[in-house]
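Quick one: structure for this chain?
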Amino acid sequence: MSSVRVGTPAVTAAKWRHGRPTDRRCIQRTATMTGTEIPEASAPDHFDEYELVLLWNARDRPELSAEVADRLQAQHLGHLEAMRVAGYLLVAGPVIEQPDLRLRGICIYRTGSIERARELASADPAVRAGQLEIETMEWLTRPDALRVGQ
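Got it. Here's what it folds into:
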């Protein structure tokens, strides 16, 4: 299981805070706005590290016949299953009621590097056929926050 410690060259506090204000004034202001007491928690001293892959409809996707589209969808699902069986893909699925209808699905990989996750996701037949585009990013969670298959 890979994890990342805050303050190491791999992850700094700025990287996981994304520039959001974390001072007590912000928390107090939020509590005043909601009229409730907001619980506090301290940040963990390390994080589990995953690779998040967003699947988007390609902007210039070629038109496909229904037969070709059905086969490509089956190959796409087969690719995801092969990634899961190989131990790279933890969970994947489509999204619904998303504000941007181009967003089609989310995959959470655990490969050890964003480059490897990008390589594996790029091998998806739907990506290779120009039907989907991928966006990859690092995703950090508290240790053991994501327990898949248990």
